[in-house]
Amino acid sequence: MSVANVEQSIEHFRRNITLVREQVGRVIVGNDEVIDGVMTCLLARGHVLLEGIPGVGKTKLVQTLADVLHLKFSRIQFTPDLMPGDIIGTSIVREDEGGRKFFEFQPGPIFANMVLADEVNRATPKTQSALLEAMQENSVSAGGGTHVLEQPFFVLATMNPLEMEGTYPLPEAQLDRFFFKLKMGFPGVDALHQVLDRTTQAAAPKVERTLAAGDILAMRDTAREVPIAHPVQDYAIRLTLATHPESDQAHEMAKQYVRFGASPRGTQALILGAKVHALIHGRLHVASEDIKAVAIPALRHRLLLNFEAEADRVDTDAILTRILADVPPAK
Amino acid sequence: MTSTPGSLLLTLDAVASRMRWRRVQRLAGIVASTIFVTGSVMFALGAIVAPTGAGPWVRNAGLLVILGSIVALVLGARRGVSRLEAADEADRTGALADELKSALWFGEASAERSPFVEAHRAKAESLAAGLEPRKLVPYRILPSHRAAAALLAVMVVVGFLSPRFTPHFGDGPSDAATDAGRRGPAPLTGATPGEPPVDADAAARDPLAKTLAALDDPTRSIEEKRKAIEAAQQLAAQRALEAAASRERMKALAEGLSQREGYEEVARALKDGDARQAAEALKSRLADGGGAGSDREESGEAAAAPDPAAVDALAEALQAATQSAPDDRTASAQRNLARAVQNLEDISKSIEATEALGRSARRLDAMTTELKREANLRAARFGERNGAGQAQSGPETGESNLKGGSMFRLGAVAQERRNPGKDNNRAGDASGNAQGDPVVGDEVRRIQAKYKRETVRDRETDEGGADSGKFAASRAADSKVAYRDVDSRMRRTGEEALSAERIALRHRAQVKGFFTDNGGSAQ
Description:
The complex is a heterodimer of chains A (about 325) and B (about 525).
Chain A: H1 3-27, H2 32-43, E1 48-51, H3 58-69, E2 73-77, H4 84-88, E3 89-95, E4 101-107, E5 114-118, H5 125-137, E6 139-142, E7 145-148, E8 154-159, H6 172-175, E9 180-183, H7 189-199, H8 213-225, H9 230-242, H10 252-257, E10 258-260, H11 264-280, H12 288-299, E11 304-305, H13 307-312, H14 316-326
Parallel strand pairs in A: 1-8, 1-9, 2-5, 5-8
Antiparallel strand pairs in A: 3-4, 6-7, 10-11
Helix pairs in contact in A: 1-2, 1-3, 9-11, 9-12, 11-12, 12-14
Chain B: H1 7-49, H2 55-78, H3 83-94, H4 99-108, H5 115-129, H6 133-136, H7 143-161, H8 176-183, H9 198-216, H10 222-257, H11 264-272, H12 275-283, H13 308-323, H14 331-376, H15 409-414, H16 475-496, H17 505-522
């Protein structure tokens, strides 16, 4: 690829992003940060953990995105009685023309490009692990064989923060596998007006398909090409170390409230997310502000807080905000 | 906008140069402020400490600070700015999102040459070519530094042009004010004839005034008051001697004057020691009714004791006056008479002052006696345990010099109301398990007689009487003893609490009982 091709690929990248935003914006009101976050995860080959109260548009967002991106979409509603086979598929007995019986693997809903795992914390850990294994390996082991999942494979898992009874909270080790954790908040007055205007009338808004799977894959490769200078990478490392209470670069709030800090996966998420963010904003390099922009969604679910944080009602967002303010950017 | 290869480095070098000069400017402003402040402090401190001889130290310290700041300026100016620092500054001020810094790093520190890196560097070169270093790194002198430099220039100009404002650090010829401060009051001797000995008045009045002030000061100790009284008494005695000598001289003068015609009345007055009468007699000799008389009005203040020099001056003046004929009314004769009158009036004032001083001295004696009695009536404070045998008697320690020994604190504590009838308790409830210190002596008498409503009897006292005069049986002594006992007990408790346990002796038993009982009940 020459320098001129680079410029073209970046322009192409930005144009596609803009198209997706426009199309999704026809259906989803506001939540621009969430849409950008989901796109960043998709292009960085990660998976998203989406948190929000019921009715804020989590499922609608994913469905709209799947329509815009022309990707195969499946939705899995997790319930306590859901079995792993319900997700990955199962082998059934079939009979051929000669009457001989054989097993045939029937793929489950996970065999899609975009998978919405609704209320993932309601399923048992056994079922959760089946999903998480697919997320990690991009393949499924079932029926005596391994089935590779078609790329792009993208999982959006949702968690209901209200219902805690009868739920199986994801363990921290499993939470760490999600690239970003995005929060969908309650819309404001103006946004509610728009939502009601769009959803309570006879004609529902429609979206056009703009991208295909091949485009997504190309954009993913482009994002990986973005260079990052050592001082900027050092800034990402300092941010990660600031979340570790035992580190000599630990922030004061981390020492007080954090039990375990972000893992190296968190630093990887910082770098990859910053690369996509830089491309979205037309830069050929990763800057400190790109790291800052993706720090909170990339790290908020990777910090394990202690009881003092619970007692003082301090959440990870507050800790990360202070760390971002106090840790100096790349020099 | 076209870019030439290396425009990024050229721009960064220009930015680095401007950053370096800006640092020099800021350091120069700081140095100017430092010099101004240090110079001002040196000027003020030098004037204050010059009489003490510490002026050169202040000057040297100030020069050291100034020299240090100049050295810091030179060192700061020599330090360079790296390209990475310049790129960081340019990215920050130009809101370039680490563009230049990243491109510089890839150009100098990284071997990666992917298409993206090349594209990134090319873009940075193009961007750098369009940058203006003077906008990225503007020269800006802080208003405070500007003001400091201006004030410093004014200070230097004023110092050079006006020697009066040049700092003086006390190592040159001293000025009159400094010398006056060092000198002290003017000596009494050498007063010019006819001039009143003003300094002698102050020298006599001040010790007396200080003594009286010390006696009225409740914070002064008995010993300090006693010393002040002794000093005042010595001065009064000295003045009395001088007054007596002056009277003798006046009598001798009277003998001489009695032979002179027209001065018989003066001589008679001098012989009687009445200087005022003698002055009146002399006034009558003046032709203009005393117009050339005393130069000063009579002062209502008491003057000092008659200074021998003043008496000499009087003698000289009288001699000069009597050398003229009785009816001589010339100006010189009048002047001599006037001078003699003045001296006589001054001497009369000094004699009156001496008499007043004598009365004060007698009052002081009476107060001394009273103070001594009061000190001896003090309740005995108990000395330290260890120093029991060597306890010094006196009003400060409160120890009695009773033969037979001293009573220690524990013994007195033991003799509280719980054991009213016992004399020689060594340990009591208030002291807990601690044993009382051994009492020294054949027999011990409690000192706080009035506290226990007992009369202390000294077997052998210095005066030899059955009842010591130091313990007066009076209500005033009673109340004083009781009052001081409260104070002494409070102090005692505080001193006892200084042990490692931090528990006063008087409370030790209760504390021990608490823990012992609780341990027993727990079991």
